[in-house]
Each structure stands twice: as C-alpha cells, then as structure tokens.
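I keep forgetting this: the sequence line spells out the residues, with the fold written below as integer tokens. I include a record here:
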Amino acid sequence: MIRLSSPRPPSRTYPPRDKAALRSLLCALAFSALSLGSTAAHAAGEPVALNFQNAEIDSVIQAIGRISGRNFLIDPRVKGKINLITNTPVAPELTYQILLSALRLQGYAAIEESGVTKLVPEADAKLHGVPVVSGRQGAGGARGDRLVTQVFALRHESAAHMVNVVRPLVSANNAVTAFPGNNTLVVTDYAENLRRLATVIDS
C-alpha cells in the first residue's frame, strides 16, 4: 500500500533582526508574567520569589515598587542591567532591602524622604538631603543600605588624627571631614558601616 502524505511546509528562517526582536518580545512577556504573579502574591500578603536575570534596572525597580508598596524617584543616570534572584520566596518588604543592596553594588544609593525613595548615583547622594545624626544614636537606627551623615564628638583622639584612620574604612564616594575647632568628625556613609565606625572610634 502506498501512503500519501501532505508535503511539509518549508521551514522558515528568521533574519538576525527578526530573531533579536523575537528574543526581546519573549523577555518582555516573561517579565510581565513575573511582575503580575509577584504583585498578586503581594496583594495576598504572601512571600514572593525574585528571578530577574540581566534585567533593566528601571523595570526591576518598577516591579519591586509594586511588590513592596514603595514609591521611587529615579535619577536618569540610574540605568543598566541587574540580577536579582532569590532561591526561596521572601517577604514583600524584604524585596525592597534586596533591591537596595543590589543597587549599592552597582554604585547607586537610596535617599528616603517624605515617603519617597530617591535613587541616585552614590557620588551625588550626599547632595540630596541625607539624614544627619549625632552622638551615640548608632546612625539613627537607619537600616544598613541607607546613607546617613553622622557627627562624632571625639574625646580621646584629635579629629585631625582620626580622619586618617577612618578615611580608608569609608566608601570611596562618601565623605569624611574633620573639624579641629570643636574636635568633631563628620562622616557620610552607609548606616551599617557607620555603626562599625562608632565602635572603632570609641575603642
């Protein structure tokens, strides 16, 4: 018996430009699905899993804003790709902390003001109303990835001497200033590092 079969349609080849467009479309669809799923989980108060691989920073910020309920103001210079992946689901509020830590690695800083988180290049952060604390407040109780300016009133060492001790311990883009007149040291850095510096200065 001779079986007749329908001829196969010729396989279609995509030029490089079409392949690139197709990849972009698939990535956009995947990102939309992840964002919608994460937002739905947040609405139910459930933990969410993050899986942003080589994603645009502004798109990730937008998704984390929906998940965490945070409002962001993004400096136009905050751009690039970012990887944000959690092996297990995390609480919606924790996604905000994870984002700030990832942005810090990219050279960007967060400034919180009036319910809005400003995201700016780290080098410019001190120009954007960084909170100031003094004494032994321990960076004012701020969380680790927040920039804070702390005033240290020195008792046992001179400010001129301590500035040389502290400078190597502070992030390169952040400031350390000595005021010999009243023997104080003013340091702008991340809260977690300021707490460590307070221990060094008091020792």
User: Anything to note?
Assistant: Helices lie at 16-43, 57-68, 92-105, 159-166, 191-202.
